[in-house]
Write a structure and sequence with these properties.
The structure is a single chain. By secondary structure, this protein is α/β, with parallel strands linked by helices. The chain has three domains: 32 residues, no CATH class; 201 residues, P-loop containing nucleotide triphosphate hydrolases (Rossmann fold); 172 residues, Ribosomal Protein S5, domain 2, CATH 3.30.230.10. It is built from ten helices and 21 strands. It is globular and about 75 Å long. 41% of the residues are buried. The structure holds thymidine-5'-diphosphate (TYD) and magnesium ion.
Length: 454
Amino acid sequence: MAKSASFSCTACGAVYSKWSGRCDACGEWNTIVEDTPLSTGPGSKSLGAKRGTSLTLTDLSAEETPPPRTQSGITELDRVLGGGMVPASAILVGGDPGIGKSTLLLQAAARFSGAGLKTIYVSGEEASAQVRMRAQRLGLGDAPVKLAAATSLRDILTTLEAEKPDLVVIDSIQTVWADNVDSAPGSVSQVRAAAHELTSFAKRKGASVILVGHVTKEGQIAGPRVVEHMVDTVLYFEGERGHQFRILRSVKNRFGPADEIGVFEMTGGGLAEVSNPSELFLSGRGDPAPGSVVFAGIEGTRPVLVEMQALVAPTPHSQPRRAVVGWDGARLAMILAVLEARCGIPFAGLDVYLNVAGGIKISEPAADLAVAAALLSAREDSSLPAETVVFGEISLSGALRPVGQTENRLKEAQKLGFTSAIVPAGGKPGGKSGLTLTQLGDLTAFVGDIFGAG
Ligand code: TYD
Ligand code: MG
C-alpha cells in the first residue's frame, strides 16, 4: 500500500494528513504544501532518480584555524561577540523599542568601517537624513559608512550583491518586506523570509549581517525569537528605560561564550562603555540600610556586584503582593517558601517587593542567599554588617550550596572596598582574597548567626 502523503505548513511547520487552505495552528492562509520525500538515488523508492553526491567525512581531530575576527574597538561589544566579529556571521540584536539598538549599531557600524570593513547601514525605520543627523550628533559624521533607507528585500539584496560589503546592518528586520511572500510586513512569514534571505547572503558572500529585532508584546509584529535559530549569534540589549545603564547580553553564540555581557551607559553623546560595571551598579548606595544587600555575581566571564533591595510590609489586601524587578518571580516564591518551611519565618500577610538596583537582570541561582538576606533584613528591619557581600545557592532543604568562581567574586568585592563575605561552607575560597569569610552550611545557621533569630 502506498504511504499516505503528508502536508505541512510553511509558516509554522504544523503537519497535516490532508491539504487545507488555512493552517489551524498559525492561522495563515495558503501555506500548506505537500511534503515530497527527498530522493537519494536509484536504490531509493521515492520519485525521481536524481542522485546526491557523497559527502567527504572528516575526523574530529582535523586541523581547524580559528576564524579571523575584526574588532570594533568598542571593548564591551567585542567581548560579547566572543572577541570580535567573525566574517560571514549572522547576528541578531534584539531589544525593546527605544532601548538604544539603533544608536549602538550606528556606533558599531562606524567603528567597524573605521577598522577597514566596507559597511552598509540599511534603515527601514528612519530616513537617511535622520540617521545622518544622529551620526553627526554622535561625532561619527566622517565614518565611511554607506546609508540607505529601504524596506524592500529585493532592492536590499540587489544592492548588496552589487556593492559586496563586509558588514551590513539591517535596522530593523521587522520593517523588511519580501514581495514574494503573501503576508503583511512584520508578520512571522515575512520576518522569517527576510532573515533567511539575508543570512544566506551572509554565508554565500562572506559578509557579516547584523539584524535588529524589536521585542514585541503579543501582537501584529513577529518578535526576534522567530529568527533566533537562523543566526549564529543572538544578542539582547536590555535595561530599564528610566536608567541610563544598558546591558548587551549574548544568549547564543556559535563563535564564543553565551551569557557574556557588555555594559553601556546612555549619555547625551550616545552609548559610552562602562568598563567597571560594579562601580556603576553600586554608585548611589548610601549607608547600610535594612533590606539592602550586595550580591557578588558573575555575568559571563566577569564578576559584577549589584545591590539587591527588598521591602517587606504588612499587606492591606487579602492576597499579599509579590513584585520582582530584575530577578525571577518563581525563584522568589521558592525562597519565601524555604524561609517559611525550614526556618519558620512566615511571610504570610506581608507584601514583598524585590528590586535589583541599576536595571540589571540577574538569573544566577547564586543570588539566592543574597535575596534571602535582603528579605530577612527587610523583615527584621536590621541591616547586614557594613561592607559585606553575600552569595550562595539555596536548596529546597534549606542547605546552602557552594557556587562557581568563588575566588573571582571575592576578588572583585575586595577591589571595591568590601571587607567581609557571607558564603556557603564547602566552596573553594582560596584564602587569598583578604576578606573575612563567614561560611555557613544552611539557611537556619544564616538566620541565627546574622539576625540572631529563627
Ligand atoms: P534608539 O537607538 O533609537 O533606540 P532603538 O533603536 O532601540 O529603538 O535610541 C532611542 C533613545 O536613546 C531615545 O529615547 C533617545 C536616546 N538617546 C540618547 O539618550 N542619547 C543619544 O546620543 C542618542 C542617539 C539617543
Ligand atoms: Mg531603532
